[in-house]
Amino acid sequence: MAELKETPLTQLHRELGAKMTGFAGYDMPLQFALGVMKEHQHTRAKAGLFDVSHMGQVIVRHASGYGGAAQALESLVPVDLMSLGEKRQRYGFFTNAEGGILDDLMLTNRGDHLFVVVNAACKDADIAHMKAGLPDCDVVEVTDRALLALQGPAAVEALAPIAGGCEIMKFLDTGIFTSDFGELWISRSGYTGEDGYEISVSADQAEAFARALLAHDAVEPIGLGARDSLRLEAGLCLYGQDIDTSTTPVEAGLTWAIQKSRRAEGKREAGFPGADVILDQISNGVPRCRVGLRPEGRAPMRQGTALFGSEDAETPIGQVTSGAFGPTIEAPMSMGYVAASHTAPDTQLFGEVRGKRMAVKVASMPFTPANFKR
Amino acid sequence: MKFTEEHEWLQDDDGVVTVGITDHAAEQLGDIVFVELPEVGTEVTKDEEVVVIESVKAASDILAPIDGEIVEVNEAIVDEPSKVNEDPMGDGWFFKVKPSDPGQMADYMDEAGYKSFIG
């Protein structure tokens, strides 16, 4: 096995007593001293600091400026980038010719270029995909910066003394701030369902910046364990688990991220890989959809659990793609794909756990209400 | 008290053996959110899966350390699985078994042996 890569904060994680784990080729903290449950609860109540430096940060430039870069990138994503406002961010995904999802990502209009954040496990493929698909653009991975996420209701009070002005940002606003830790690229976003920020900081300032945030009473370091339960409670997909090349955005319930202008009869209809499949699915429906699931007992239904329409049905009608115990809702929760006939909220299903059929109901997501500053 | 290599403890009180997991195991597992216990009256065989516990991240099995009949289970940890993390060697016990071959207890480590086993 290849040696795990480190982030600019790996040494700090070890110093803080993190239990480390290999994730997407990186040596990452699974949990800190608080443990997954308390880290999760702390993030919802105060603020959690996450190292997400393993994710890819990419700059896409075009000689003609933002418009050229946006127009070019629209050939790879079903997202309206042309009308994305300056300093605004949008969620999107790369699709393939079959309409499957190659990766999900965040896209920012930075005035004269695009800034893209992609998943760690996909970043090399994503960059190759952009270089091949955007011959007129300059696609450059940012390798000298760390990426931190500060999430939770107290995130604003911890960051504002360092990056004055970040407190007036709204959800999905972005900005470049000067600070004692050099230039900070900040977006008011994250992946926990909480208010908060993602902050790109120069790698050589990352540890000092993280220490400054951790010095705030409300901030605790949080590992990947709680990141996973937080994003699942927030109803958000994990690439490679809930979405991948075998799922389309429509099946995955991500149609909201395809703006009207890119849909049938829109101003810039189609023009992205798999558009024929995806636009047909938007019009005519899909055989299966991603849904939230609430098991009725205390037992979590984890990834791979087969779902049945009745207690004695022989053929499964779906499968769990993510499942865990939700510390905020104090109950197990899952998401997965089920046949379109079984997607209405409160539909009674059965998941097969250790050979037994356990009752589970289709539930609306998010499992916990989002706390974004819109 | 005796200890297994699977990080269970066994406490024999007048022929009834209480079984739980060690502090070390509870710490390794992390926050426990679900426990499934056997039914009272079940006959169990050594190394048979008898309890399912799930922590925040993963499910694990607890094996019966000895042959015998389950005579009592700790319902309190079903309602409040966190009791296992809080007091694994006390209030967080799992079940009591009446051994059919008490001699099997002799195979297990004493406390000093277990301490050196976990290093």
From TrEMBL, chain A:
Record Pfam families: GCV_T, GCV_T_C
EC number: 2.1.2.10
Recorded GO MF terms: aminomethyltransferase activity
Entry keyword set: Aminotransferase, Transferase
Domain Aminomethyltransferase C-terminal: 288-367
Domain GCVT N-terminal positions: 9-261
Keyword Methyltransferase included in the entry's annotation: no
Catalytic activity: N(6)-[(R)-S(8)-aminomethyldihydrolipoyl]-L-lysyl-[protein] + (6S)-5,6,7,8-tetrahydrofolate = N(6)-[(R)-dihydrolipoyl]-L-lysyl-[protein] + (6R)-5,10-methylene-5,6,7,8-tetrahydrofolate + NH4(+)
Membership in a protein family: Belongs to the GcvT family.
The protein's name in its UniProt record: aminomethyltransferase
Lineage of the organism: Bacteria, Pseudomonadati, Pseudomonadota, Alphaproteobacteria, Rhodobacterales
TrEMBL record, chain B:
NCBIfam families from the UniProt entry: gcvH, PRK01202.1
Lipoyl-binding domain mapped to chain residues: 16-98
Residues carrying N6-lipoyllysine: 57
Family note: Belongs to the GcvH family.
Protein name as it appears in the record: Glycine cleavage system H protein
HAMAP family xrefs: GcvH
Transmembrane segments: none
Cofactor: (R)-lipoate
Oligomeric and partner information: The glycine cleavage system is composed of four proteins: P, T, L and H.
Organism: Roseovarius phycicola
SUPFAM superfamilies from the UniProt entry: Single hybrid motif
Function recorded in the entry: The glycine cleavage system catalyzes the degradation of glycine. The H protein shuttles the methylamine group of glycine from the P protein to the T protein.
Alphabetical UniProt keywords: Lipoyl
